[in-house]
Amino acid sequence: MSLYSALYAGVSGLNAQSAAMATVADNITNVNTVGYKAVGADFSTLVGGGGHGGAYAAGGVNMVTRQYISKAGTPLQTGSGYDLAVNGNGFFVVRDGTGADSKVAYTRAGSFSPDDFGFLKNSSGYYLQGWPLDSNGNFTNNGNLSDLQTINYKALSGTAEPTTTANVQINLQSSTQEITGYTAGDIAKGNVTAQFSRPITVYDEQGGEHQLNLGFVKTGANTWQAEVYAVPASDVSAADGILATGQVKFNPDGSLDVAGSDPALFAGLNPGWTNGAGAQPIKLGLGTDGKLDGLTQTSDASGLIGSSVDGGLFGAVTGITVSDTGVVSAVFDKGEIRPIYQLPIATFANPDGLTAIQGNAYTVSDDSGNALINPAGTQGSGKITENMLEGSTADLGTEFTNMIRFQRAYSASSKIITTVDQMLQELSDLKR
Q: Does the N-terminal or the C-terminal CB of the chain have fewer CB atoms within 10 Å?
């Protein structure tokens, strides 16, 4: 009977509108939730039957939720360097624990902060993942999620790196008096006083400081003898602390003549620290052939123009900084900044097809396609902005309007039921 189909249609209307009202409730209560994606309610007809002159049976209505996950929220400025937002496509890769076997999820909620152990997690308890960088700032992206690690910057506290490069820019005065009778090692042994000498501080693998001296004496036109030696000599296993000696030649214009100079000075220094600490070969940067970027000889007074030495004991980590390409760098209390992780951004062929889970995060589904992980700003993935959060996409004005719509439709559906009830009562009264 058509009356009964109308009754069931009214019930389907109540169910559909009440479910739609639930989406409004979620959206309103999450209007201030970072990275929240508003849920929409779509309605579709349920076909009963009949038509074309026959008896008609009402089908009713069905409600299907739709998540607008690909819609970006408004960026919100914050005062925390741990707050991150994706500016463009993609999601942060997170896990529900710090272990490699923890479940992977994806989120736009970048309200991260360090826990007691230095792991970065957001307000929903998901831990941020990244590729660890080697000492040269490189990483390997095989597209495999198992290569990612939970970011923990505190593990670097007290980290030491040995010196591998020491660059100097020194001018030697061309009018310096030439000396005779020099023998290699005389400066380090104290037999000859250096006409110019400067110390540089280098570091072993335990972060220990060591002093190396660069001493020079002029032995001919455009010709100097150089020595590199440790002070005190007992710091190294080499005899008299001497690590390198050789001739330095200059071109007529005062630029460095590498071809005429002793190759030993331009090879790596190999200090064998007697304190038992490990060492790496130290490349001594004395300049480029024919250039004025290292050792030079001019009429100006001899002097150190500049120097740079890598390595050292970094101390305690005081915070992090994140570049727009997702490079996470640790900031140490001594002022050093060291890149430690590369953040990946996950993109999907159909992000609206992701499956929502607890904590404002998502997992892969058949509709979304597999995750493609690449560094931020590459392969269509968005860049990262620190000190920013992505706001909720729920709009109060829209939600209150929908609330009125769904409430009215719910009331109308209830009227169908009461009216059909009255009509059925009329039928039962015919028997009297």
A: C
